[in-house]
Amino acid sequence: MHDRAMFLKSLLARLRAYLDHDDPLVATTNLVALIVASNLPFYPVYHLALIGWDGWPSLLEAPIGLVFFAIPWISRRRSLAGRALLPLIGTINTLFCIKIMGEASGNALFLVPCLVVAALSFRSSERWVMLPLVWLPVAVFLLSIDRLGAPLVPFTEAEFATMLRLNAVSAGLFVGFIGMLYGRSGTESARASR
């Protein structure tokens, strides 16, 4: 039992070191990336539990978690690139999920957290990066309406309704969580600048 506790403690210490950055804004972006990376493998489980084997296409999105997990590594080398990749990869992943699960699944709701992360991940001097990334999810939403074709599985209305509820709750909670994390990083930045 003691060895397991020591292993977990060591693992958490390594994870904290992996996410850590001198800049609280970058550290927050790294944490959000890790949260996304650690949740993506569970999303197919939710689909399979709620709608059965018809939810198999969501298994295709699980490997994207590895890309999100690489963001802290990239941020350590180029903080601006790491912060830009989070909303960019999030938007691309959301578009992919809209395609494989269908528009009626409500996956487009995850474009909102992408927009929020883009708005909060940059300083005013970095507006040249922030503005295109804020408008990218909006453009993806508008340009994808009725243009992505049928999902990989012909879901029933009840299955779409179930996915829509899951995605609405998940995206809403994620936006609230993002606000809390970035609010904390803003407070830390203000303290550090005193």
Question: Biggest sheet: strands, sense, closure?
Answer: none
Strand segment count: 0
| Percent of residues in beta strands | under 5%
List the secondary-structure elements in sequence, H or E.
Answer: HHHHHHHHH
**Total number of helical segments?**
9
State the helicity in percent bands: over 70%
Low-confidence runs: 190-194
The whole-number mean of residue pLDDT values reads: 92
Rg (C-alpha, Å): 18 Å
User: Overall 3D geometry?
Assistant: globular
**How many domains make up the coordinates?**
1
End-to-end Cα distance: 45 Å
Q: How does the helix and strand content classify structurally?
A: mainly alpha
Give an account of the 3D structure.
This protein is an all-alpha fold and 194 residues long. The chain has nine helices and no strands. The protein has helices at residues 2-19, 24-39, 43-51, 64-69, 71-77, 79-101, 111-120, 127-144, 157-193.
